[in-house]
Design goal:
Two copies of one chain form a homodimer. Chain A is mainly alpha-helical and 216 residues long. In chain A, 65% of the residues lie in helices and 0% in strands. The relative contact order of chain A is 0.10. The interface between A and B is medium-sized, with 34 and 34 residues. The first copy, chain A, binds a DNA duplex (30 and 30 nucleotides) through helix 1 and helix 3.
DNA sequence: TTCATTACCGAACATTTTGTTCAGCAAGTA
DNA sequence: TACTTGCTGAACAAAATGTTCGGTAATGAA
């Protein structure tokens, strides 16, 4: 979709700073109140739409219609639909990561995530529906896996692990996110506290036995 | 993309039998050797392409170029890119489901999947890369969850479960598929047998303790 | 082998979506 | 108040999607 050579190098061309394929990053923008408002409108629109239909079938036109924002404005902020999605949910992933990291044991912070999920039901629902969950997963995965692995290493001390630690951490994060997804899909049939208890009952005995460590 | 009224109702119009949005199903085709060959070419092309780039960025044009098949031929077989993907991988999901179902305990058949994965490395890699894994997951999920739940019920006998069985089954399938994905992403650093052992070591103690049942 | 069937090809075409440009306007900032 | 910067909206190029159809050739059955 290359365009013809622009007649004149436009003056206010801090628009794009990107190589489309390399996906270097999003566009530059100030913290102007207008910019913030626009971004908010766009992300809200995307979340709303993701509650209604699949991510794939949402067009940029849908988004800007819903957000009531000009077409060029969209492209002034984001490279494309994908960029909007990731920059939105990467943030969510970071938030979640922080929730995990400021406690003593990552395994004891899952409750917070369940609770946080309940409080932000709409966002998470959209997230699970579309492909958002994968992006958050990625953002969260590194964080959570690293944290868990460090924790296990510390608890193991000098002893070697009878099982590769990444296997354990991926097992745990995968199971956790799957349960979270199930819980949302079924409209949260039990309390966050119950979900957390179930998760830990399913996880801790095996892990403690296998690595010969104790939690809490 | 409605088209203008066709001048004449075309004679050979067994092309489409679908409501595009309702996604009723794919198009009708005989088991003509030519049809089979075309489908094979198209699915092979898709798998190849998914090994090279993201599913999203693959166009119908890419596929038919790679498969060396006419544009109209593609649309004679499939509704769109999505349809090709699903009809291909739903089949794979069913195969996997059968692998699971013809043994005594579903939990003891994971080894077969790990082995099967290793033997069909390219297919599974493409599957994990693109969105294929979700589709297989869906196809497999119902099968596996139902199977596990029935097994648990039978083992429990009259006793009530201290935890909703869907929670257990989703936990297990989620953890399993995540491990499978990790294993592939890291180019299978350990043997299928090891992976299976790890998985069972992480799963069985907790489940046996929680439900007070025994496997094997 | 013959013959009717049916899938394929390929090009033309309508339609939709994407991404870019720019001049004028208006909201925000200092 | 100025002046800086983001927004609008329309126009446009490019690309991808999906449909049509006449001609060709592979297929399977008699």
């Amino acid at each position: 979709m290359k365009y013809k050579e622009p007649t004149q190098p436009t003056k206010r061309a801090n628009y794009a700073l990107l190589n489309r394929k390399g996906k270097l990053s999003m566009k530059s923008n100030k913290n102007d109140r207008r910019s913030q408002r626009t971004r908010q409108l766009l992300t809200n629109a995307l979340v709303e739409l993701m509650l209604e239909k699949s991510y794939e079938s949402i067009t940029v036109q849908d988004i800007i219609d819903r957000a009531n924002v000009g077409r060029s404005t969209f492209y002034a902020h984001y490279l494309d639909k994908e960029d909007l999605l990731t920059s939105q949910f990467e943030e969510a992933g970071r938030h979640l990561g922080e929730e995990f990291s400021d406690g003593d044991s990552a395994l004891f912070l899952t409750l917070r995530v369940f609770q946080h999920t309940r409080e932000n039901y709409r966002l998470y629902k959209a997230l699970v529906w579309g492909r958002g969950i994968e992006i958050v997963f990625k953002a969260l995965e590194a964080h959570l896996n690293a944290h868990l692995e460090a924790e296990f290493k510390q608890k193991l001390g000098e002893r070697p692990s009878p099982i590769p630690l990444p296997v354990v951490t991926h097992y745990i994060t995968g199971a956790f996110l799957t349960l979270l997804k199930w819980w949302l899909d079924n409209n949260m049939p039990v309390t966050p506290e119950d979900m957390d208890r179930y998760f830990r009952q399913l996880t801790i005995p095996s892990v403690e036995g296998l690595l010969d460590i104790k939690f809490k």
